[in-house]
Amino acid sequence: MDSYAGLVETGWSPIQDDGFIGLVGPFFQKTAPDTLLFCFPTGDKHRNRRGMVQGGALMTFADRCLGIVARTVAACEFSATVQMDMHFTHVAKIGDMIELHPHVVRESKRLIFLRADLVAGATVVASVNGIWKKLGLTAGAFRN
Questions:
Q1: Tens of pLDDT, residues 36-94
Q2: Do 84 and 129 meet the contact criterion of CB atoms below 8 Å apart?
Q3: Whole-prediction pTM
Q4: Are the CB atoms for 54 and 45 separated by under 8 Å?
C-alpha cells in the first residue's frame, strides 16, 4: 500500500478484502458530505490484450462500490447484486485513476436501485445501473 500513500494522505481509505477484491484492486473510498466516493488506481495488472483497462476490472470495481453503497444506505450487513448493466463509453488507459460517484435512484423495502458514472479525469469511461437486495438489516441509514 506504500505506493498509494498520497491517496491515504488526501483522505482515501483502502477497501480491505483478502478475497477476490484483494487480487484485483486496490480500490479506495472516502466519505464526502452526504455521499461516499470511490477510486481505482489502475496499473499494468489491469490491462487487456489491447493494453487498455480490462472491462471486467471496471465491472468488478463498480459492483463492489455500489454494493458498499447499498449496504450503507440500507444499514444492513450484507447485500446481493440482483442486476447490473454496464455501458462502456470510452477506453480507460493503464495509469488512469478511475472515480465512481454513486447515486441512489430509489429504495424500496427490500431493494436499492443505484447508478453511477465511472470517470477518468473529465472523461466518462462507463455508466452503470443496478439493483441490490438488502440482506441482514441493522439500525441506522445513510442517504445521498
A1: 999 999 999 999 999 999 999 999 999 999 999 999 988 888 999 999 999 999 999 99
A2: yes
A3: 0.88
A4: no
Task: Please list the helix, strand and coil fractions of the chain in percent, rounded to the nearest 5, in that order.
Answer: 25, 45, 30
The CA dihedral of 97, 125, 53, 32, to the nearest 10 degrees, is: 30
- C-alpha–C-alpha distance, residues 94 and 105, integer Å: 31
**Whole-number Cα distances in Å, 97 to 7, 40, 58, 92, 101:** 11, 6, 11, 9, 13
- Three cell numbers at 78? 450484507
Bridge partners for 40 per DSSP: 98
Ordered by where they begin, the domains of the chain are: 2-137 (3.10.129.10)
